[in-house]
Amino acid sequence: MDKYLIVAIVVILCIFIVIYTQRADTGSARRSFKDIVQKEFSSYKVIERNGVIVIGEHNTQNHFEERIMIRIDQNQKKNIRNFGWRVTFTYSKQPSVREMRKDFAPYL
Predict the structure, then answer these.
(1) Residue 28's pLDDT band (boundaries 50, 70, 90)?
(2) 38-51: b (≥16 Cβ within 10 Å) or e
(3) Do 52 and 71 meet the contact criterion of CB atoms below 8 Å apart?
(4) pLDDT at residue 22 greater than cutoff 60
(5) By the number of CB atoms within 10 A of the CB, which of 2, 6, 13, 104 ranks highest?
(6) Which DSSP symbol is given to 28?
(7) Distances in Å between the alpha carbon of 86 and those of 53, 97, 105?
(8) 31-88, pLDDT tens digit by residue?
(9) 57 close to 65: Cβ distance less than 8 angstroms
(10) In terms of C-beta density within 10 A (0-12 exposed, 13-18 middle, 19 or more buried), how is residue 33 classed?
C-alpha cells in the first residue's frame, strides 16, 4: 500500500510540473516577436516594417541605420545575407532568444 501511495504522489507531482511549464510557455507566446527582440536587444532600436523586424541605431546625423533584418519565411531554410553594413537573417520559424544572440553576436 505504501508503494502505491508513493507512486501516486510522484505522478501528481509530475502532472503539476507539466502544467506549470506549459503555463509559463504561454506567457511568452502572448508577447509579440518584436517585443521579445526589443527586450533582448534593449540597447538598440527595434522596429517592424512590412512584417520584417529591423534592429538598428541612430547615427550622429540622427538617421536610423539598419544593422540586422529578421525575416520569418516558412518556405526557406535559415539563411544569412550581407548587404554592406546590414545583415539579413531569414528563419523558417520564429528563432529562440538564444539562437538570435548567437547569430547576431558578430554583427552587434
Answers:
(1) low
(2) beebeebbbeeeee
(3) yes
(4) yes
(5) 104
(6) H
(7) 13, 20, 14
(8) 788 888 998 888 999 999 888 999 998 888 888 888 999 999 899 899 999 988 889 9
(9) yes
(10) middle
